Each structure stands twice: as structure tokens, then as C-alpha cells.
Amino acid sequence: MDTIQTIIDLIEPSCFMSSLDLKDAYHSVPIARNYRKYLKFQWNSKLYQFRVLPNGLASAPRYFTTLLKPIFAFLRQQALTSSGYILMMYF
């Protein structure tokens, strides 16, 4: 996973920059049926089970970054400097 320093090091004079907010992106990543049993919780006497990658799962950023690596590799092959950085803030 890239760090903010990696991104700063990529910046050059006169370069163009943009950002992309992948809102709820984790919810587009399905969880295999045999792993869903580990993503259950009970609330108000009801049992819930995630079928997609949940926010707050400790391994979610690393897994999601792994999914994005081929996309960044493709962009770099096209001579487009690109980097990924995941920022999660919970209050």
C-alpha cells in the first residue's frame, strides 16, 4: 500500500492531479461463502452476516489494495503516474 510520502515523491512541476473517492467500494467486493461465517454479528436478537467486504475489518484495506494493484499497473504501463492511498477515519 502506498503512503502519503510515496504520493508526494511522485509530484513534479506542472503535473496534473486528481483524486477519486470510491464511496462504499468495499461493498462491491463479494466474500466467498465459506468465509462469510466469520463475518457474523448479532444485534437486537437478529443475526446478520456480511456478504461483501465490510468497513472496519482489519484486513480490508490490504485486501482491497491487492485488488487495485492490476489497475495501477495498467495505468503505469500507459505512462500515467498513479498511486493508491486509502484513508479511513472513524469518529
TrEMBL record:
Checking PROSITE patterns in the record gives: RT_POL (PS50878)
InterPro entries hit by this protein: DNA/RNA_pol_sf, Hepadnavirus_pol/RT, RT_dom
Q: Which PANTHER family match?
A: REVERSE TRANSCRIPTASE DOMAIN-CONTAINING PROTEIN, RIBONUCLEASE H
Q: Provide the protein name.
A: Reverse transcriptase domain-containing protein
Q: Which organism is it from?
A: Patella caerulea (Rayed Mediterranean limpet)
Q: What are the Reverse transcriptase domain coordinates in residue numbering? A: 1-91
